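To illustrate the input format used throughout this study, we show a single complete record. The first block contains the structure-token representation of the backbone; no residue identities are included at this stage. The design step must infer an amino acid for every position from geometry alone.
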């Protein structure tokens, strides 16, 4: 019996699932495959049937979960979970697809498409066993259809425009309804003219909490981060969804660093970060600093403890979700970012001529009669964020990257990057605690002559001079 309960836990059906119609069916299924001493092959089959199917379609819905009692709501940096109503024991959610004047950063706006006033940051949250009824009002100028990504549901609720349902036309409201037979980090997105509509921003996360979670499910901070990518050319007002590569805006919940809200944690909190990727073309290896994490779940469900492995970088492929969990035991400002270096850039970085190592000589003087503002750039790299603060920029562009940091120097990252702020004695999760105050002697600073002499480090100034030239 204990064994059966634990397998149901894996399936996501908790102990309350032991009452009601579901268990009746489950018991019948048991009868088909397990004798008192089932052969090894049969056991394997049973394992797969119980672990990797949604079970019977007709399940009796359980009571809607209550935030704070049945689950701790997720934290959505730069976004929010959608409100809901309970009508006749059903969780009713109203999703509104619409055009939104979206700011990726204060200096960079575009007319995107999204949901309920937000782009990429509108999260649906529910509890396993609930019946959900989701109305999707289409305020876009074109037909759409919303797919529930990773869900067990009736085929006609799957939301593939033209295949499983008629289009949801402009001005119309479509109704989706099914009973949640799983928990996990899942997603939703347009499934009609996907290249255009998902590229314009019609994507979101859909978090389903377990009905009777195992004790280890409980965390102190449960963050939801949705990754995406865009092309907004300088001076234009809409994303160019025809671009197939060289995306120039890489976002977390629709924002680029430094506009990505930090993930604020107390020291020794247990942290879960749910990552989803519904960008067009790129997989993102998300890397944490100062900590390791375990990959605890995918869009296919929970990973058993024995199969979890430690990492500091998790690859989140297009269409995938990954849960990572760790203890925030190291106070500080820790970068958390995509490790593809082109994905921690903002606009412009990709469109420069490569000038690294070029000696411009009097090129600037020769060019200025033709282009008065001409300046050769990039000979020693592209660290131009600060320059962008003083130089004239094309309309609707932001600095290629960066932000002035706590030491007055530039943080040379933008795009798909945020900061995990771990603090002792934190008063509130809802305030940015500012830059980390390092204990004395714990910052890498310029080495003194005394220190160099003590440790026998000889600095060869000739090669340094050559490197600087
Ligand atoms: Cu990336």
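Output of the design step:
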């Amino acid at each position: 019996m204990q064994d059966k309960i634990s397998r149901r836990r894996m399936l996501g059906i908790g102990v309350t699932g032991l009452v009601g119609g579901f268990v009746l069916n489950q018991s019948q299924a048991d009868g088909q495959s397990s004798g008192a001493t089932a052969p090894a092959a049969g056991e394997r089959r049973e394992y797969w049937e119980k672990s990797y199917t949604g079970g019977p379609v007709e399940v009796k819905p359980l009571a809607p979960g209550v935030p704070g009692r049945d689950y701790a709501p997720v934290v959505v940096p730069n976004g929010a979970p959608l409100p809901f109503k309970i009508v006749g024991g059903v969780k009713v959610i109203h999703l509104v697809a619409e055009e939104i004047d979206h700011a990726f950063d204060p200096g960079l706006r575009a007319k995107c498409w999204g949901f309920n006033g937000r782009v990429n940051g509108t999260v649906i949250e529910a509890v396993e066993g609930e019946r959900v009824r989701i109305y999707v009002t289409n305020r876009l100028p074109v037909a759409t259809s919303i797919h529930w990504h990773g869900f067990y549901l009736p085929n006609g609720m799957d939301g593939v425009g033209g295949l499983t349902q008629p289009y949801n036309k402009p001005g119309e409201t479509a109704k989706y309804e099914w009973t949640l037979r799983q928990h996990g980090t899942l997603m939703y997105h347009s499934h009609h003219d996907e290249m255009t509509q998902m590229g314009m921003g019609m994507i979101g996360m859909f978090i389903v909490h377990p009905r009777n979670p195992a004790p280890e499910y409980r965390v102190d901070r449960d963050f939801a981060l949705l990754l995406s990518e865009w092309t907004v050319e300088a001076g234009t007002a809409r994303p160019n969804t025809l671009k197939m590569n060289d995306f120039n805006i890489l976002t977390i919940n629709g924002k680029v660093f430094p506009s990505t809200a930090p993930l604020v944690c107390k020291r020794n909190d247990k942290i879960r970060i749910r990552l989803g990727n519904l960008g067009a073309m790129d997989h993102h290896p998300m890397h944490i600093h100062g900590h390791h994490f375990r990959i605890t779940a995918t869009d296919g469900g929970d990973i058993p403890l024995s199969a979890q492995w430690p990492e500091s970088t998790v690859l989140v492929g297009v269409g995938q979700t990954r849960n990572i969990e760790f203890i925030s035991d190291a106070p500080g400002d820790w970068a958390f970012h995509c490790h593809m270096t082109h994905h921690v850039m903002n606009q412009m970085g990709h469109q420069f001529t490569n000038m690294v190592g070029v000696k411009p000589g009097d090129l600037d003087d020769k060019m200025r009669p033709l282009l008065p503002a001409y300046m050769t750039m990039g000979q020693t790299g592209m660290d131009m964020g600060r320059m962008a603060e003083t130089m004239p920029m094309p309309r609707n562009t932001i600095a290629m990257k960066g932000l002035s940091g706590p030491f007055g120097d530039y943080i040379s990252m933008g795009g798909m990057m945020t900061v995990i702020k771990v603090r002792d004695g934190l008063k509130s999760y809802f305030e940015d605690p500012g830059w980390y105050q390092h204990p004395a002697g714990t910052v890498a600073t310029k080495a003194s002559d005394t220190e160099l002499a003590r440790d026998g480090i000889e600095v060869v100034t000739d090669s340094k001079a050559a490197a600087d030239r």
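Structural context for interpreting the output: Residues 282, 284, 338, 340, 343, 416 surround copper (II) ion (CB under 6 Å). The mean pLDDT is 85.
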